[in-house]
Amino acid sequence: MISIQRLTKHFGDRVAVNDLSFTVQAGKVTGFLGPNGAGKSTTMRMLLGLDSPTSGAALVDGKPYRELKDPLRKVGALLEAKSLHPRRSARNHLLAQAHSHGIPARRVDEVLAEVHLTEVAGKPAGEFSLGMSQRLGIAGALLGDPEVLMFDEPVNGLDPDGVRWVRELVRAMAGQGRTVLLSSHLMSEMQLTADHLVIIGRGELIADTSMADLIRNNEGNTVTVRSPETRGLGAVAEQLRAAFHDVRRPSPYELVVRGAAPEQVGDACFRHRVPVHRLQTSEASLENVYMELTAGAAEYAAPVERVPEAGALMEQKAKVGQS
Ligand SMILES: Nc1ncnc2c1ncn2[C@@H]1O[C@H](COP(=O)(O)OP(=O)(O)OP(=O)(O)O)[C@@H](O)[C@H]1O
């Protein structure tokens, strides 16, 4: 388990991480999200003992990284694509890492196979594409068969096959009961990969929530109903508005209802004898929810045009913050 306790990091007068607390549970993939400069990499670096906290603690199984007895067997990490010795082969690079941690050479061949680099293992790492270098970095993280995995932007530079491969790998690792913390800016991919999310902005916690709760509770979920019976549809809209649902009518034949269950919309149509030609639910995407939650926290945010719903957003933030 990873435990971040009131973690703070200052670089001069710049506050990179500010009183941040959360835990990362075993057996799940936890997505670590936040705009550029939010403090994700700094937090991961403190977990790996590469930066020291100004105050607070970043612990793996209750200990700072530097106090772990066998760190490579406890934590495997991929930070930004490492600068590798360009003439050293992928295999030799991993062998060097293995030797210095008392890991047997056969484990190097196992991880090379796991990341599909066996055939190019003798090639100099300097000739690797970005995707191959990422796979090599992941191989290094897996070397000690660690309980905890931390990947910072692992799908950077990967083609769609590679992206899917990382998704399946991290899901399998969590399925084996490992703790997986994963950062990425690719929201659609994160939505498919993560069970839980920790979202930070300007070094502070914005949300710590399961993916399912975040999407389910979002105001952006809608039910669309289509019918040729325009008058009846008007009556349905009135009934739903009276029940405090937000109802739009993009055309005479269509209603878009926010915050209602499909059963409620279907029942209202039935009551007003409106023949339903289509009833469609649409869930908010993680990307939309994320954009709402982090609006204002981005370091170089472009002005975002938004329908005014600040009240709903503040409520949502409060809800998410508490869960
Ligand atoms: N070594 C350093 N010296 C000074 N400032 C730093 C240093 N490392 C990070 N920072 C600053 O700390 C803040 C957090 O940076 P960090 O790299 O942790 O963010 P991030 O969430 O990983 O961003 P990105 O998504 O762009 O990788 C930024 O404002 C950054 O400029």
Task: Explain the overall architecture.
With 323 residues, the protein is an alpha/beta fold. The protein folds into two domains: 2-216, 3-Layer(aba) Sandwich (Rossmann fold); 220-283, Alpha-Beta Plaits (2-Layer Sandwich). Helices cover 37% and strands 25% of the residues. The strands form three sheets. A six-stranded mixed beta sheet has the order 5-6-7-3-8-9, sandwiched between helices. Helix 6 (160-175) links the parallel strand 6 and strand 7 (179-183). Helix 3 (90-100) crosses helix 4 (105-114), helix 4 crosses helix 5 (130-142) and helix 9 (230-242) crosses helix 10 (262-271). The longest helix has 16 residues, at 160-175. Bound molecules: adenosine-5'-triphosphate (ATP). The site of adenosine-5'-triphosphate has 11 residues, from strand 2 and helix 1. InterPro entries: AAA+_ATPase, ABC_transporter-like_ATP-bd, ABC_transporter-like_CS, P-loop_NTPase. Residues 2-227 form the ABC transporter domain.
Q: Level of helix content?
A: 25-40%
Spans of 5+ residues with little confidence (pLDDT < 50)? 301-323
Shape descriptor: elongated
User: Ligands bound here?
Assistant: adenosine-5'-triphosphate
Largest sheet, strands/sense/barrel? 6 strands, mixed
The mean pLDDT is 88
Determine the number of helices (DSSP H or I, runs of at least 4 residues): 12
CATH architecture annotation of the largest domain: 3-Layer(aba) Sandwich
Look at the structure and give the CATH class of the largest domain.
Alpha Beta
Gap from first CA to last CA: 19 Å
CATH superfamily of the largest domain: P-loop containing nucleotide triphosphate hydrolases
CATH topology of the largest domain: Rossmann fold
Binned strand content: 15-25%
Strand arrangement within the widest β-sheet reads 5-6-7-3-8-9
Structural class: alpha/beta
Q: Can you count the beta strands? A: 13
Helices and strands, in N-to-C order? EEEHEHEHHHEHEHEEHEHEEHEHH
Cα-atom radius of gyration? 24 Å
Number of domains: 2
